[in-house]
Amino acid sequence: MNRLNRFFHSRNCTALIYVVAVVLTYVAYQTGQVRAITGSQGIALQSPNSWITSGGLSLAAGLVLLALTAVSFVALNKVYNVMREPSALMSSLYVVMVMPMPMAAGQVYGGALLSGVMLAVVALMFSCYGDTTANRRVYITFFIMSLAALVQYTFVFYLPIVIVGLAQMRILNVRSLLAMLMGVVSTVWILYGVGAIGLSDIEWPRFASTLSQQSVTERIISLTAVGLTMILGFAAMCANLMKMLSYNAKFRAYNGFLTVIFLSTMLFMAIDYSNYTAYFPILSLTAAYQMAHYFAMRKQRGIVWVILGVMVAYLGIYAVRYFV
Fold it and tell me: Quick check: 262 and 255 in contact, CB under 8 A?
């Protein structure tokens, strides 16, 4: 049993699950389950769903982005030891959670960009902890988010969340706020200066509701995956709370920032429900962390069955779409 538990926390398990996800997503693509995200979700530039017109190429690129995010998640924990345990389970669970919604894993679109960029933002924030001279990294963080917001409007909602992160990392001061403002403004200023965008290009996003593109059955299956992810992530977060309070200030800040992103994502998804697919990957990413943190702190013999049960539940949600 201990050997199985170690396997679940290993990178070999993540690699195996990723291979399974590739096969299942390809099957979903061949059977028409990967519905293309349509419309424009950018504020001034083309949204990611229109970057690649070929469905097969978008599928391959989407799966590559999924792998890069999973690998980066493992690297983040290795560098900053956020979970206080050397585990790759969060990446395994992330891939498993995204799998039941093939349209989220099988193409390049704003949701894939959101999860990858926010993971990079988390790493930048962690690197700034307690360093009041880290204004360049603060500038880079908000420059990246401002640039991403031009192609995916959901990044605008996360700007206040990262400001909260500045406070959690103990670097919120006048200089960091000025660096933040410069990062946000300079993106538009530079692109306007080189002629990449004009004032006429800045407009409210126009996109088709994801829910309106799905049948009733597809909506139920997708929303079941979303609901299960929210419930499991929130339950794990509550169970982790007392343990997190016992950490030192740095690790409380790290975990607190990831928790704020998770809670805010649930709120944004509830408010902007017609575009819920854009938030699903980052929801899965942060929920996977909460669950992996919970499992890493508990080494009881029976915990492996809980982990296996979670994975089977998501595989079951994926399979249901072929039998209803």
Answer: no
Do the Cβ atoms of 113 and 51 come closer than 8 Å?
Answer: no
Strand partners, 206: 40
3-state secondary structure 44-103: CCCCHHHCCCCHHHHHHHHHHHHHHHHHHHHHHHHHHCCCCCCCCHHHHHHHHHHCCCHH
Angstrom distance (rounded) from CA 168 to CA 43: 29
State the first-to-last Cα distance of the chain, in angstroms, to the nearest integer.
36
Do residues 255 and 196 lie in contact, with contact meaning Cβ atoms separated by under 8 Å?
no
Question: What is the Cα–Cα distance from 251 to 201, expressed in whole angstroms?
Answer: 42
Q: Assign 306 to helix, strand or coil.
A: helix
Tokens encoding 215: 């049948």
The backbone region for 195, taken as left when phi is positive above 0, alpha when psi lies in -120 to 50, beta otherwise, is left
The CA distance from 117 to 72, in Å, is: 11
Q: Are 37 and 18 contacting, i.e. CB atoms less than 8 angstroms apart?
A: no
Read off the pLDDT of residues 53-105 as tens digits, 9 standing for 90 and up.
888 999 999 999 999 999 999 999 999 989 877 889 999 999 999 999 988 88
Q: Find all residues with CB under 8 Å of 62, minimum gap 6, and list them.
A: 25, 105, 106, 107, 108, 109, 112
As to burial, measured by CB atoms within 10 angstroms (0-12 exposed, 13-18 middle, 19+ buried), residue 320 is: middle
User: At a CB cut-off of 8 Å and minimum separation 6, what does 47 contact?
Assistant: 39, 40, 41, 109, 110, 151, 152, 205, 207
DSSP class per residue in 233-301: HHHHHHHHHHHHHTS-HHHHHHHHHHHHHHHHHHHHHHHTGGGHHHHHHHHHHHHHHHHHHHHHT---T
pLDDT for residue 42:
78
